[in-house]
Amino acid sequence: MIKVYTDGASRSNPGLASCAFVIQKDQTVVFEYAKFLGIQTNNFAEYTAVLLALEKCQKEHYNDVAIFSDSLLVVNQCTHQWKVKSQDLFPLYKSIIELVRCFHSVTFTHIPRKENTHADRLCNEIIDKVSTDIK
Predict the structure, then answer these.
(1) What are 91-123's pLDDT values in tens digits?
(2) For residue 133, is it within any domain?
(3) CB-based contacts of 77: which residues, under 8 Å, 6+ apart?
(4) pTM of the model
(5) Which residues are CB-contacts of 23 (< 8 A; sequence separation ≥ 6)?
(6) Is residue 93 part of a domain?
(7) Which residue from 24, 59, 69, 97 puts its CA 20 to 30 A from 109's CA?
(8) How many domains does the chain have?
């Protein structure tokens, strides 16, 4: 089972935004990624992190993926416990649900922010870098 930790960040919400994910296999980080998203909401960033992570897992031919996120919204919507009401998030949600069908299994688990420090750090580093470049 591949473990994927995802996170999204937005300063001022909407504001400077980024997303990141960390892929672990047998407790070892095998891949990490962060991306600046421009001006976006935190929820958009959280969803984008999950989508990009699943795309990477598909490319690597991982069959069983466990997604861990500190976004209760993303986890509950991707597990069909909550409806997606946002028109901005629905296309991302739809892409994720379609992509999930390509795997043997994908689980979504909500975790506290303190258990998601690696992905959180990557998000903040890229926003800090862009913020510094803008000044």
Answers:
(1) 999 999 999 999 999 999 999 999 999 999 999
(2) no
(3) 83, 84, 89, 93
(4) 0.96
(5) 2, 3, 4, 29, 30, 31, 32, 53, 56, 57, 60
(6) yes
(7) 59
(8) 1
